[in-house]
Structures are given as structure tokens and as C-alpha cells.
Specification:
The protein has 400 residues and is an alpha/beta fold. It has two domains: 147 residues, Aspartate Aminotransferase, domain 1, CATH 3.90.1150.10; 240 residues, 3-Layer(aba) Sandwich (Aspartate Aminotransferase, domain 2), CATH 3.40.640. It contains 14 helices and 15 strands. The chain has a seven-stranded mixed β-sheet, with helices on both faces. Helix 5 packs parallel to helix 6. The radius of gyration is 21 Å and the shape is globular. The structure holds pyridoxal-5'-phosphate (PLP). Pyridoxal-5'-phosphate (PLP) binds next to helix 5.
Length: 400
């Protein structure tokens, strides 16, 4: 009954965990969720006010499908000060969330069987998005020794005549690792040899950095020559804590952006006029808030890292940006909890949720079994309580 396209949609195993967490909460259990990919702090007051003002002033109608000229200009200014790159309004398309910007970019780039290089661990949606564009996700597994980042050698090995694009994000969801300028330089050197390959740079977390820098290094810093085939993705969701406002954008070569805008105009239509007005103000006046956010996240991270020292069976990889902890829990495989053998990180996640009321996302979701992703966009007290419960489970595991 369903189309082949619909059959490509994989039901996420996390959905089970999320549904289960809700069920347990409804039964009155004190569930701590470390699954969410969103900030726990409110949208900054300047954007909230701008949203309310937009409603009151009747900014409640369709806008151009590619977004208002005012917001596109604000995005251009922001991108100029962040990346030091110049763009025109024709090279910016505002979309209903950054997820749709990536989705639409793949739709307008891929022909059937074109390959898109993605490296694992990857953000959960990338492979399916490529498949829905009739492309083939070419997954390159990355290793701990490379901080779970793709090396220039691995990238080069995986480029062939079918390669249409290389899609990556830095800081990474799920690891929080950031590509250095040197690594980007090597990657750029490979990409410069392959002019057919487009680059989709997902910058969703690039303002959330713990080393005091304003943003993560960028491929265009080291190779501005790639600009004519790079699509930069960003949005309001993470740094501006505006996940529910659903505003993202794609910036890049006019021809691709025009097609992406046309694709959006025939599918979602224009993004919310109210949200666009609110994001515009965020882009212009939330710099101090972002600084404070980074300090808060850094403190939360330090507390979580300290707490995890009490679980030497796990290896926690300290992130440089975003708000996720990537934890190697492979040492629990083959152990038992009350007679039940643990075969995977999913098994661990299930017991952790059902018996200890802590929800996490197993590594299988990101293409890397043996790991867990934990969001630390949560109050430190709750995070510490959650890690304590994880320790209780680990302490109760037996070898037979
Ligand atoms: C890596 C990455 N890219 C893109 C997005 C999409 O963000 P949104 O659609 O909320 O703007 C997310 C959200 O979780 C993400 O983690």
C-alpha cells in the first residue's frame, strides 16, 4: 500500500524509548530525560518580545517563500561577522527549521543513486534524508583515535564518480567534537581535487563552543574557493534556543538556493512570519545571551565529567561544543542485569529507563553501537542525579 519512498522511512528505536519515558512519567515515576536535542533554557526575551510584537502588529501573513528580505539581510550580516563571507539575498533561503533546509538541499542536489558521504557517528536524520532524495548514503565509520571525525584519507577513498555531496557537522551531534583548522585544511585539499562534490556544512552548533571561541572553525575559513559549491546550514534552534519556532536557513550558490526555495514554496510554503520576525531580532541582539549560555554549558559539562569519574567502566569523550556527551559503554556488553544478558547499548538504555528512570539515546541511532548519547542541556542537579542512577545500574551488573 505504501510507496517505496515511504517504506524507506525507518521507525526510530528512540521513539520507543521516548514513548516509554512518557508512559513511565504518566505513571508517576521521576524520569530524567537526557535524550532531548534541545536547550532547556527559555527562548531569549528579545526574541519572545519580537514574536509578540509581530503578532500584535499583524505580521501574520505569508512572506516570500525564501523568507523576508529583512531576515535574509540579518542572516547575511550574521554570516559576515561569523564566517567573514559575503552573500546576496538571492543566496539565502529561510526554511521551516534547519532540518528542512538540509532535506531540501538534498532533494535539489541528488539524482537517483547519487552518493552522499556521511560519517558515523552521524546525526540520526542524515541517512534517511539522503534516501528520501533517492540518493545513497555512503557511511564512513570514524574511529576513536580520530575523535570520531572523518580523515582526509577516508574521505578521499570514498569519493567516486557517483559522489554528489559531503555532509557533515561541526561541532558534531552526537559527539560534540569540532574539526580543527588543520583537519579542515586536509579535507578541503581533497575536496578541491573533486569539483563535482558539493559540501553541506551543517553549522547548527557552531556558536556553542567551550574553549571561549566565538564559533567553530569552518571549511570556508581554510578554503574560500569551495564557496561556489558549499551550502551552509544554520538556524535559530540551538544557540538561540528557538527549537519550537522552526526557523532554519541555507546559504550557498544562487542556483541551488533558488531551487531549494522553489522546492520549499511547493511543499512547506513560507516559514512562519512571526518566527522570522523573532529570529531576526535574535540574530541582531543575542550575543551576550549566547556568551552566558556557553558559560552555563561549560559548567554543566565540567560537573558531568567529574561525576562520570565514579563510573570507570565507561569512557566519556569530553566534547568541545554542542551539548552532548558521547559515552563508550561497550564494557557492559555480555554482562547481566538480574539474569538478563545485555547484548547492546539499546539493551542497556532500555533497562536504564525501565528500572532506573533515566532516558538516553543508544549509539545504534547514530550508526555506532556500543555508545550512549546524553544531553547535558539539563540542570546540573538533575544531571548528577541521572549519572548516579547510571552508576547504580552499572554496579548491579554481574558477569553471569
Ligand atoms: C546536527 C543537527 N542539524 C540540524 C538540526 C535541525 O535543527 P532544526 O530543524 O530544529 O532547526 C539538528 C537538530 O537537532 C541537529 O542536531
Amino acid at each position: 500500500m505504501l510507496s517505496r519512498r515511504a517504506q524507506k522511512l525507518k521507525t526510530s528505536p528512540t521513539l520507543f524509548l521516548v514513548a516509554k519515558a512518557k508512559e513511565l512519567q504518566a505513571q508517576g515515576h521521576d524520569v530524567i530525560s537526557l535524550t532531548v536535542g534541545e536547550p532547556d533554557w527559555p527562548t531569549y526575551p528579545c526574541s519572545v518580545e519580537a514574536g509578540i510584537t509581530a503578532i500584535k502588529n499583524g505580521i501574520t501573513k505569508y512572506t516570500p517563500a525564501q523568507g523576508t528580505i529583512e531576515l535574509r539581510k540579518a542572516i547575511i550580516q550574521r554570516t559576515k561577522s561569523d564566517l567573514n563571507q559575503d552573500y546576496t539575498v538571492q543566496e539565502v533561503a529561510v526554511t521551516s527549521g534547519a532540518k528542512f533546509a538540509i532535506f531540501a538541499a538534498l532533494q535539489v542536489l541528488c539524482d537517483p543513486d547519487d552518493e552522499v558521504i556521511i560519517h558515523s557517528p552521524y546525526w540520526v536524520s542524515y541517512p534517511t534524508m539522503v534516501e528520501l532524495a533517492d540518493g545513497i548514503p555512503r557511511i564512513v565509520t570514524c574511529h576513536e583515535k580520530d575523535s570520531f571525525k572523518i580523515t582526509a584519507e577516508a574521505l578521499e577513498k570514498n569519493i567516486n564518480e557517483k559522489t554528489k555531496a559531503f555532509l557533515f557537522c561541526s561541532p558534531s551531534n552526537p559527539t560534540g567534537f569540532v574539526y580543527t583548522k588543520e583537519e579542515l585544511q586536509k579535507i578541503a585539499t581533497v575536496l578541491l581535487k573533486h569539483p563535482r562534490v558539493h559540501i553541506i556544512s551543517d553549522d547548527m552548533y557552531h556558536r556553542l563552543m567551550f574553549d571561549g571561541s566565538v564559533r567553530a572553525p569552518h571549511i570556508l575559513d581554510v578554503a574560500p574557493e569551495l564557496k561556489s559549491r558549499t551550502i551552509v546550514i544554520n538556524g535559530g534552534s540551538k544557540a538561540y534556543s528557538m527549537t519550537g519556532w522552526r526557523i532554519g536557513w541555507a546559504i550557498g550558490p544562487q542556483k541551488i538556493i533558488q531551487a531549494l526555495g522553489d522546492y520549499a514554496s511547493q511543499s512547506t510554503g513560507a516559514p512562519s512570519s512571526i518566527s522570522q520576525a523573532a529570529v531576526l531580532v535574535a540574530l541582531q541582539s543575542a550575543e551576550n545571551e549566547i556568551k552566558e549560555t556557553n558559560i552555563t554549558l561549560k559548567n554543566r559539562l565540567a560537573a558531568a565529567m567529574r561525576e562520570f569519574k565514579s563510573i570507570p567502566q565507561f569512557k566519556v569523550f569530553e566534547p568541545q561544543g554542542a551539548f552532548y556527551l558521547w559515552v563508550d559503554i561497550s564494557s557492559v556488553n555480555g554482562k547481566y542485569y538480574q539474569g538478563q544478558k545485555l547484548e547492546s547499548s539499546q539493551d542497556f538504555g532500555k533497562i536504564l529507563l525501565e528500572k532506573f528512570f533515566v532516558a538516553t539515546v543508544p549509539g545504534e541511532e547514530f550508526g555506532n553501537p556500543g555508545f550512549l548519547r546524553l544531553s547535558f542541556a539539563i540542570e546540573t542537579k538533575r544531571m548528577i542525579e541521572a549519572i548516579g542512577r547510571i552508576k547504580s545500574l552499572v554496579d548491579q551488573l554481574t558477569i553471569g
